Each structure stands twice: as C-alpha cells, then as structure tokens.
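Box S2. Input/output pair 1.
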Amino acid sequence: MTDPPGHAAVELPEGSWWDWDVIAWQPGEFRLAAGHDLTYHHGLEPVFTDPLLVTCPAFFHDPVFRAPSADEALAVARQLGERPLVAFEADAGGPGPVSCLVAAERLDIVQGTVLHYRRADAAPGRRYAPWVRREG
C-alpha cells in the first residue's frame, strides 16, 4: 500500500498487529513496527516519508485507524498547509484511548519479518531492526 488518500482511514494487511513501537524517527522518515509481540520480531512497518507532524506515544497497542476529523484536518492545514494525514486511536496504557495524528508526504506499508536480535543461522538477506548489531 502506498500513498493513501489524505483524509481516509489507513487499511492494514491481514495480521495480528497488536503491539506498536516507534523504531526510527530521523529527518525524512518516521517508522513504526507492529506485530503480535515485539519481543523477538515484528512483521509490519508503516513508513512515513517527510513527516511534518507526529502526535503519538512511543509505544502503544491496538490502534484503530480512522479518517481525520474535519477539525483535525483544518488545524493541520492552518499550520502546515494541506498534507496527507493519518489518524488513529490507540491504547497507550492510560485510562482511555489516545488520539494520534501523523502528517507526512507519503506512507508505505512494508510487510515481512524483521528480527529484533542477532541470529547466526539467519538466512541471507534477513532483515534486522535498526538497533541490532549484525557482525561479530
């Protein structure tokens, strides 16, 4: 999935995407990891290119993606101009769900197993999380 409409809900591929974590936030890219348990690996990465606004916790559970409200879209447009916008509600461990927004130029959904630890017997080409040391 690439380039979702600016004001539509994101549709994720089938899977168990309960745990979510921010795994990279650098100039030009905001990357999330999702899976049923992020202890050893994840299987889904929403990658936001050129993010201009991010309001979400670093770790959350069970997001429900939705179209941004008219008020959210207007507030972002006033501050940043018209931007594609992703909105969702998520469990961040508090008394109720938290509302989250991401305004970015592009969204790509990357699916495939990404290991969170080094494995000597991993197949060539295996993907590792950014923090995993790959040598020695």
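Box S3. Input/output pair 2.
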Amino acid sequence: MSKSYLSQIEKGANANPSLQMLYKIAASLGTTVDYLIDEKTNGVKSKEPSPYITEEWISLLNQAIRQGMTKEDFLEFPNYLQFKKNLQTWKGSKF
C-alpha cells in the first residue's frame, strides 16, 4: 500500500477503501476491520447490538472461562465437534 493511498484514506479523499485494504490496515495496526469501521463513524456507536456478539454469547463465554476453558480449548472445539459428527456418521453407516 502506498503512502499516498493511505494519506487519501486519512484525509477522507478516499472514503471507500476496499475490504482487502481495510484488512491490511487493521493487521498493521493490530486491530480489526470492525474497529476501524466504528472509528470512521466518529466514535458514534450503533445502538443495535452486534448480530454476532450478544449478551448471551458473552455470558456463555464467561461461564466457560469460569469452568476452566482456555483459549486453546476454544480454538480446538470446532475440531472436536467435527470429530464427533464424523464418529456419529461412521457409527450410523453400514459396512
């Protein structure tokens, strides 16, 4: 990404950078695209809750952490679910 392109974004001359560019900027700043987009609204946060992270999800995550679930456990969990699904499929199939 060129300095001039980044300067255009900062000055508002390019108010619609591509998602790919937003990912690059976010990664270099150690943040997320969501954070960048929220900042572009001049700090005015939407009153609508995020469709992905609700109070229920936060509560479930907090409960899992209190019960000893680690970040590594959380990252491995989709693999466990896939294994379990494959095992059920295997048990249900006839050889």
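Caption for Box S3: The helical segments are 3-11, 19-29, 33-39, 55-66, 71-92. The chain has five helices and no strands.
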